[in-house]
């Protein structure tokens, strides 16, 4: 098995307006594609969205390309979004390119603020090379990483509990990890609507898991 992590830039393709909303709208902080099915129309996508996801509903309601959708709130800042609808020919060709032969795409696919997408492929070397070479014009590709011990580079994030992950994301958004710090534990607790000691405990446990993962140890 070979592994490669790539970033593709599909922004020159004729994409649906929703894609640009999910990547370039300041009200959407982060979007991951958790899973998808493009084998037969209509296509189906499951997104995990962080930010003011309720602002997407008018566009989802009015889009002629969305057949059905459902928002499944996790918090007031994060949700799952399931969408079925019509993909553009270029989008379908792009996704089908990564299903050839032995290839598997390891979710999630990260939709980046500049419109690019980053994800991991596993499979035989020949199939990975064919997929990279088969990316249709005018999409560009950058190889971020080849090989490595982990299949999923974000596995440490998956090890966090939902509340620990939320605490870290809030801390990042508020500038808690900036130098100098722009917020305090009290600020994070207010955003999480919990006690200061509880917010501190969530961060401590999350930080322990992240650091332990970097050094290949198990947190105590």
Structure description:
The protein is an alpha+beta fold. The protein has two domains: 2-146; 155-213, Arc Repressor Mutant, subunit A (Orthogonal Bundle), CATH 1.10.10. It has helices at residues 17-24, 57-62, 89-97, 125-133, 155-158, 162-173, 185-192, 196-214; strands at 2-9, 28-37, 43-51, 66-75, 78-85, 104-111, 117-123, 140-146. It has an eight-stranded antiparallel sheet.
What form results from the Cα inertia axes? globular
Instruction: Please provide the count of β strands.
Output: 8
Structurally, how many domains make up the residues?
2
For the record, give the distance between the C-alpha atoms at the N and C termini, rounded to a whole number: 33 Å
Number of helices: 8
Strand percentage lies at 25-35%
Biggest β-sheet: strands ordered side by side in the sheet:
4-5-3-2-6-7-1-8
Oligomer: single chain
* Biggest sheet statistics: 8 strands, antiparallel
What percent of residues adopt helix (DSSP H or I)?
A: 25-40%
Radius of gyration, whole Å = 19 Å
Low-confidence runs of at least 5 consecutive residues: none
Order of helices and strands: EHEEHEEHEEHEHHHH
Write down the overall mean pLDDT: 87
Protein structure class:
alpha+beta
């Amino acid at each position: 098995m070979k592994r490669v992590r790539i970033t593709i830039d599909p922004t020159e393709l004729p994409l649906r307006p929703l894609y640009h909303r999910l990547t370039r709208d300041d009200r959407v902080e982060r979007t991951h594609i958790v899973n998808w099915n493009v084998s037969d129309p209509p296509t189906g996508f499951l997104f995990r969205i962080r930010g003011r996801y309720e602002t997407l509903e008018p566009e989802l309601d009015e889009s002629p390309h969305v057949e059905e959708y459902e928002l499944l709130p996790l918090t007031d800042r994060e949700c799952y979004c399931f969408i079925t609808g019509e993909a553009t020919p270029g989008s379908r060709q792009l996704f089908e390119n990564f299903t050839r032969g032995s290839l598997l795409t390891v979710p999630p696919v990260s939709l980046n603020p500049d419109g690019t997408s980053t994800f991991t492929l596993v499979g035989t070397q020949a199939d990975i090379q064919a997929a990279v070479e088969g990316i249709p014009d005018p999409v560009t590709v950058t190889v971020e990483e080849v090989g490595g011990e982990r299949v999923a580079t974000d596995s440490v994030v998956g090890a966090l509990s939902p509340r620990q992950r939320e605490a870290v994301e809030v801390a990042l958004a508020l500038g808690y990890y900036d130098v100098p710090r722009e917020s305090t534990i009290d600020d994070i607790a207010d955003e999480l609507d919990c006690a200061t000691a509880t917010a501190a405990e969530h961060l401590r446990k999350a930080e322990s898991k992240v650091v332990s993962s970097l050094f290949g140890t198990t947190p105590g």
